[in-house]
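WARN no homologs supplied; continuing
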Amino acid sequence: MPKDNYIESFERYLSDVKQVSNNTYLSYVRDINQFSDYLTRYLRTDVTAVTQETVSGYIAWLRGAGKSSSTIARNLASLKCFYNYLLSRNIVEQNPVFDIPVERAEKKLPQILTSAEVELLLDQPKCTDMKGYRDRAMLELLYATGIRVSELISLNIDDVKLSAGIIKCTTHDKERFIPMYSAAIKAVSDYINLVRPQMVASPTEQALFVNVNGERMTRQGFWKVLKHYQETAGIQKDITPHTLRHSFAAHLLENGADLRSIQEMLGHADISSTQVYAQLVKKQLKDVYNKAHPRA
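OK structure emitted
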């Protein structure tokens, strides 16, 4: 295989064999191409002639360029995957990243909204036109279920079970069923029955949420919707779709839900991903204690 094709072959491997998410694919490809450019520009060599010293030098270069620990750790993960691929194809004899220690970035606890801020945000869409009905349904559903924005826009009309008060969410061929509170059920029901039939471009459209053109809502489209209501609500925090997911989990935990149930609803494969919310709640309690206790 010509050396110029190693990265292209790796890209096909990521998409066709590993079937990584689009974000992971883009990150890996960007990191590997940047590394290849570094090798060509500064060392006049290629990806097959890399040693541990080469990788260590690259890390130093990234650090000198002001890259964060998390960015450097991600680059190392990308390189390790790339060289494992080359090793499996007998293109290199060893993985030069194998013994390189990964920089551990300090994990930042996710930002969440207070219950009052959630109520303020959810109250912004006004059901005076079709867009208002749709937007309220999307926001209510996101906070009611804690699903990811990619899962929200992937929902089909058949995934909503209004009579049972649940939605079916399918990710990576795994299904999970998540309940909705009554206000979310009403918002989604009003949208489906009163608005959606007039918004869809075609009666055969399967997407639950559609844009003004009657086609499936996109991530970018929903992002603009959320940012608009953040501004109208006057909330100073930087709200992302994941902020509502984090808030959903933290508020459930604060009100007595167990971690295993939250893990199942969020679709976390590992309980450790869910335990961050326990740390978050503990930190909030400590902050309240320090501010309120007369001797703190």
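Residues 15 and 25 are 7 Å apart (CA to CA).
OK
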